[in-house]
Structures are given as structure tokens and as C-alpha cells.
Design a protein that fits this description.
Helix content is 32%, strand content 24%. The longest helix is centred in the C-terminal third of the chain and has 21 residues. By secondary structure, the protein is α/β, with parallel strands linked by helices. It folds into 2 domains: 278 residues, Aminopeptidase; 114 residues, Alpha-Beta Plaits (2-Layer Sandwich), CATH 3.30.70. The protein starts with 20 loop residues before the first helix and ends with a helix. The protein is elongated and about 85 Å long.
Length: 408
Amino acid sequence: MIVETKAESAPAATLPGALPEGLRVELIAFRRDLHMHPELGNQEFRTTAALKTRLERAGLKPRVLETGTGLVCDIGAPDSARPMLALRADIDALPIPDVKVSCPYRSTVPDRAHACGHDVHTTVVLGAGLVLAELAREGRLPAPVRLIFQPAEEVLPGGAADAIESGVLDGVGRIIAVHCDPRVDAGRIGLRHGPITSACDRLEISLDGPGGHTARPHLTTDLVTAAAKVVTEVPALVSRRIDARSGLAVTWGRIEAGHACNVIPQHAELSGTVRCLDLAAWRQAPDLVHAAIQEIADQYRAKSEINYIRGVPPVVNDSAVTDLLQDAMTARRGAQAIEDTEQSLGGEDFSWYLEHVPGAMARLGVRTPGEYTVRDLHQGDFDADESAITVGVELFTAAALLDAETRG
């Protein structure tokens, strides 16, 4: 739960860095251009070039990450005595079609769409960076800030690990991010202390046997039944071998076996996800899942091959950094613009940064106020109320200024 707003939070009038109208219009156009030209993870060359060009126009010196896409850019001279606040955005899109009908900026790339709002995240960090760069030129930026434009968030285990290896956290003391939320009105953010997303891993299983005739299953490995038992019993077994409060869940997305009704196949494949709300339980998950699968396969004399693909741990918001976001939003828009948010079962590779430095993620409202149609992320008709861009920029600029003030 979010604690009551501190009385000493600065009023909006005392904070510089308001978003100029001309820049607001430019950012909306920038976001729409990204929306029309979505790029998949590690293929974000056009997006990277557009960001680099705009940051250089502002007199900044962005550096392309070693992976070839994504950027890191410092505003103000790094100071070894004062760790920087980092603002992180993810820049990749999803491999799904954009099905919006009358939208003038719908995707122009077949089977590609910014259906998770990464174009908004990117534009928010760009806008905050441009505002902060202007403050730095005026001598009003009290501490340096780092912008991180990260590729491949949608590709397990996420591009954050590569970005970290490239040194984006060197000299960083705290990191913040936003994620679009179509259940929250534009003009508001959702905050939560502690876990705000879940862990997410991928599971691929192959089962093999000699095959045979369906008239004589007792003479062979009944592979379809074995696969069905894995599907139905593994989630139940795992759930009884760990604290139920951990929220560990195995869910299947694909099962494939056989080609004829009277032939017991020699091969079956299953794939799904393992999600977990608790960080400690996530660390135990691979051993628990492996053991449960092997137990069922052995009962049916099926040979199993398990590929457990580590994804991301939960995003666990640091309390002090969450308070910083709360104070920043209160300073810009008042306490009424903040709401509590629940822990999601979705995964986010922002969590990898939090293995190294404290940080927090806010849910950025993108639903048009008064609209109550139920919408979700990762759907081909996803769109955002673009007033959310201004809110995100205000949040990040205020956080950068208050962070410097509170940490001296």
C-alpha cells in the first residue's frame, strides 16, 4: 500500500521543468512516428537512430549500446561522489498485427505493433531528457541524470541484462521507469511498495517413446496420456510443494502430439510459462518443476527432455524510490493523481536492474477518462491517451529534481 503523502512534499510551483507546449506537440508526433514504425527486439535500428538524432540536436552525446540498438545518454557531468538517477525506457514492439481501423498512425509494418506502450515509455524518457537538458544548460539541474533506452524487453530473458553488461548502471544509484496501464485513467499513476510484477520463465518439454498401435497401449508408452498427465498434474504437484502465498503457477500454451487417431505417437511437445509472485520461490522454481515433470514422465515410461528458460524475476519496488515517485507526482499534480495498484502476473525485465541498484516502476495511466471499455496490453487494438506523455515527463523531471534535493 502507498503511505500517506508527506506534508513536506514541494508544491508544483516551486519545481522548474514544466513541459513547454511546443515540445508537447513534438513528443506526440514523435510517439506517433514510433507507433507507425514498430521494430522487434534487437532490431530497433530506426528507433535508435531517431532517438540519437533528437538527443544530439539537444546538444547531448548519446551512446549506442554494444548490441547495436538502444542508447544511453548522460545529462550533466557524472560525479563519482553523487550516484546518478537513471530513467529507463524499453523501445521494442510486439510481433502481432495492429488491428486499429480508423487510427491515422496505426502500424505500417505487417504483423508488428506497439501493443504494450513502449512507444509511450520511450517518448516519456526522451521528453524528460530534453526538459532536463534545458535545465542543465540554464544551470538549474542539481545533479546528473542518465537516460537508458533499452532494446528487447519482450525477448526472454530481456535486453536489460545486455544493457547492464554494457555498463548502463555504472555510476547509477537509483533507477525509475513507467509502464502503461490501460486500467488507469490518463492523468494518474499507480504505485505500489514491494513486488509490482511477477517472475516469468518459459518451459519447453519433449516426451518420447517407441510408439505403437492404439489397440495395444500396454505394450508401449502411451505418450498422449503421458503428455495429458503432465499438463494436468504438474501444476497441481508444484502448487503443493511450495507456500501457496508465493503464487507459483505453471500454465500451458501449447501441446502437440500425433497425426492419426489409431497411432500412439513417438513424440510429444509441450510449452508454457512459469510465473511467480515471490522472489525466493522463483529461485526454487526450476528444481520444483523439473522434479514434478520427471515424476509424471517416469510413471508412464516416457523419456523427457526439459528446457527451462529463465526469464525475469519480479520487479520489487524499493520503498524509498517509490516514495520519491509519490512525492514527484504529488508535487506536479497532487496526491489525488496517485492510486494504489496491485501486483501483476506479467513479467518485466526492469527487474534485472533492481538486482543491482534500488529502483521503482510506476503504472502510467493511459485510459481516456470516462472510457470504461475493458482493454488490455498485448492486444492489436491497444492505444494510449497521449496526454499520458505529459504526465510521464512531469513525473520523471520532478523525480530527478527531488532526488537531487533529498540526497543532497
